């Protein structure tokens, strides 16, 4: 069968219909699909295994634990896919899917002192859109910067383009803020922060150096390449930076915001340190095991 048809079936015949089920059952089924993905993708398994051996040697008890983490990675990615369609069917009776960690809103409100803008610095860790949704349901208005999802991005096939536009469009419906892409005029992003808005930015996106210059922050026994633009934005607009991370608790999500240093460059480095701490806690939750060679350099 044509790969595009298979992808369409995965998104719209399988996961979109799973989202109609009671949430515990839906996420249990998604986890099972993740196990099938694990079995069908030996090359991806090998690449992730190599990354874990390179980056996490001090935190792996042995091959059996490593395989357990890799299986959990595929399960988490399948649940994240299901989140897209669950968001589209979000109702008050389903909001028990999400909780906010104690003190998270206090962290955000403190960072806004004097009416300044705030950057929520996140990484590709766990079910990231659920953190934005949790904040939106708590009454927070958020904007975000994303990859290009329209025809300007020639790397996207039509099915992936449709899916990503649906995914981000659904999230924007809840968060109510500006949706800015990497192909848009970045002055809009500066203006938003200068006007006191809250913007979500991803630190560990893999983009060519011609698009975003990089900082190299200490990360395990090496360094992680992260977007320099986050620190530069905060420096030029006076925005505060806080760290955002979602944690899985079974099929539910507990979303957390943490304070970071005032200095923008120290804040970005500290955010990478927070990511390292979270990966030690749940190694399978980092999406970028599938691109680790592009963003991590050993000492």
Question: Secondary-structure blueprint of this entry?
Answer:
Blueprint: H1 3-18, H2 23-40, H3 42-55, H4 63-88, E1 98-100, H5 104-111, E2 118-122, H6 129-137, E3 142-146, H7 158-175, E4 176-181, H8 187-194, E5 198-202, E6 214-219, E7 222-227, H9 228-237, E8 240-249, E9 252-259, H10 264-281, H11 292-295, E10 296-298
Parallel strand pairs: 1-9, 2-5, 2-8, 3-4, 3-5
Antiparallel strand pairs: 6-7, 7-10, 8-9
Helix pairs in contact: 1-4, 1-7, 2-4, 4-7, 8-9, 9-10
Give keywords.
globular; 11 helices; single chain; 299 residues; alpha/beta
Overview of this structure, please?
This protein is of the alpha/beta class and 299 residues long. It has one domain. Helix content is 50%, strand content 19%. The chain is built from 11 helices and 10 strands. Helix 1 packs across helix 4 and helix 4 packs across helix 7. The chain is globular. The model has no long low-confidence stretch (mean pLDDT 95).
A few lines on this structure:
The chain has 299 residues and is of the alpha/beta class. It is built from 11 helices and 10 strands. The strands form 2 sheets. A 7-stranded mixed sheet has the order 1-9-8-2-5-3-4, sandwiched between helices. Strands 6-7-10 form a 3-stranded antiparallel sheet.
């Amino acid at each position: 069968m044509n790969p595009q048809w298979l992808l369409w079936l995965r998104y719209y015949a399988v996961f979109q219909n799973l989202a109609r089920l009671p949430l515990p059952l839906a996420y249990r089924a998604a986890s099972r699909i993740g196990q099938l993905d694990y079995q069908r993708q030996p090359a991806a398994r090998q690449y992730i295994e190599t990354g874990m051996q390179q980056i996490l040697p001090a935190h792996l008890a042995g091959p059996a634990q490593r395989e357990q983490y890799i299986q959990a990675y595929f399960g988490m990615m399948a649940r994240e896919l299901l989140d897209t369609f669950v968001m589209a069917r979000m109702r008050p009776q389903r909001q028990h899917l999400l909780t906010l960690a104690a003190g998270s809103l206090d962290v955000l409100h403190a960072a806004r002192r004097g009416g300044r803008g705030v950057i929520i610095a996140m990484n590709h860790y766990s079910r990231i859109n659920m953190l934005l949704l949790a904040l939106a349901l708590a009454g927070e208005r958020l904007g975000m910067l994303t990859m290009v999802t329209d025809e300007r991005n020639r790397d996207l096939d039509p099915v992936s383009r449709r899916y990503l536009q649906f995914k981000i469009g659904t999230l924007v419906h809840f968060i109510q803020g500006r949706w800015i892409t990497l192909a848009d005029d970045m002055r809009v992003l500066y203006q938003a922060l200068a006007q006191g808005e809250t913007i979500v930015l991803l630190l560990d996106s893999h983009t060519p150096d011609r698009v975003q210059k990089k900082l190299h922050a200490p990360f395990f026994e090496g360094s992680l390449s992260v977007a320099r633009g986050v620190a530069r934005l905060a420096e030029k607009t006076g925005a505060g930076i806080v760290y955002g991370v979602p944690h899985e608790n079974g099929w539910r999500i507990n979303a957390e915001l943490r304070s970071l240093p005032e200095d923008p460059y120290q804040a970005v480095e500290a955010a990478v340190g927070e990511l390292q701490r979270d990966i030690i806690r749940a190694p399978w939750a980092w999406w970028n095991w599938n691109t680790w060679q592009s963003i991590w350099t050993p000492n």
